[in-house]
Design a protein that fits this description.
Strand order of the largest sheet: 5-4-3-2-6-1-7-9-8
Largest sheet: 9 strands, mixed
Number of domains: 1
Number of helices: 7
Structural class: alpha/beta
CATH class: Alpha Beta
Distance between the termini: 27 Å
Helix content: 25-40%
CATH architecture: 3-Layer(aba) Sandwich
Strand content: 15-25%
Number of strands: 9
Bound molecules: NADP nicotinamide-adenine-dinucleotide phosphate
Radius of gyration: 17 Å
Length: 240
């Protein structure tokens, strides 16, 4: 509850973009999936409950197209406790699921499109073309730079103007790298799971081109929980 209040206070203070919390599970050697880049299902039931709790706190969920392609679905809030809390806070029962993709080449047969959740798409002009017809996405945001990349600051301002005050970012590593580069990550929850995956090509929490150590965002440890063989790390990204 206290963390919730902090998020709200910071959002009110800033007042122009949603706050963000990245939530990822990784192996003890820092991989968020194995080298096949398949869906990562190595977290415990407790880790899944933790993820659902973070999703339940959010107005919107951001997920990269790669993550959607790997899983085919998204995580809905289903626990009665979290659904009641959302109602008490005057939130919609489900946070809006926002898919981020330049190409928007996504299989419309994915189970995601049958899930009872609101769906928005954040994409480019080119990506938007194939989704203009039909009702797969309730809203399509085209917010791009002159070079056809998503303009993240402007996109976040639009999400804020659409009523989203807090976003849960479910990955993957490419999306998180883009958000970090745009200075749009406020907090991270990383679950260290008891296995080793290895592999130079296995995805990590932050992929992209990489960050030189001198410029690396610095973190403040807010909380550590160790349950059974998993460790739940809660970090805040230091600003400036
Ligand atoms: N362990 C965990 O908690 C966890 C969580 C999530 C995902 N994963 C794993 O991570 C892997 C997927 O990772 P990923 O890095 O490939 O996926 P990702 O970040 O989910 O998706 C990459 C795709 O998202 C879109 N995207 C990312 N950044 C963008 C930007 N700046 N602008 C526009 N579009 C952008 C692009 O889509 P287009 O190509 O369509 O343009 C890009 O190809 C899977 O193996 C999955 O299992 C693990």
């Amino acid at each position: 509850m206290e963390a919730d209040l902090n998020i709200k206070a910071e959002a009110d203070e800033r007042g122009d973009r949603p706050t963000t919390t990245v939530i990822l599970a990784m192996s003890a050697d820092g991989k968020i999936a194995d080298r096949s880049r398949a869906a990562a299902r190595f977290g415990s039931a407790l880790d899944k409950a933790h993820l659902e709790q973070q999703v339940a706190k959010a107005d919107g969920v951001l997920l990269g197209a790669g993550t959607l392609r790997a899983y085919g679905t998204t995580l809905r809030v289903v626990q009665p406790e979290w659904l009641v809390q959302r109602q008490q806070r005057d939130k919609a029962l489900q946070p809006v699921q926002i898919v981020c993709s330049r190409s928007a080449v996504i299989n419309p047969q994915l189970s995601f499109f049958q899930q009872p959740v609101p769906r928005w798409l954040l994409t480019t002009t080119i990506g938007s073309r194939q989704w203009q017809e039909g009702e797969a996405f309730e809203r399509i945001f085209v917010v791009e730079t002159a070079t056809g990349e998503i303009a993240w600051q402007a996109a976040f301002e639009q999400l804020w103007a659409s009523g989203l005050k807090h976003l849960a970012v479910l990955g993957g590593g490419a999306l998180v790298a883009s958000l970090l580069e745009a200075n749009l990550v406020d907090e991270l929850w990383l679950t260290v799971c008891p296995l080793l995956l290895g592999g130079v090509d296995a995805p990590t929490p932050v992929d992209g081109a990489g960050i030189m150590a001198a410029l690396a965002p610095r973190l403040q440890l807010l909380e550590v929980r160790s349950i059974s063989d998993e460790v739940f790390l809660h970090y805040k990204v230091k600003k400036g």
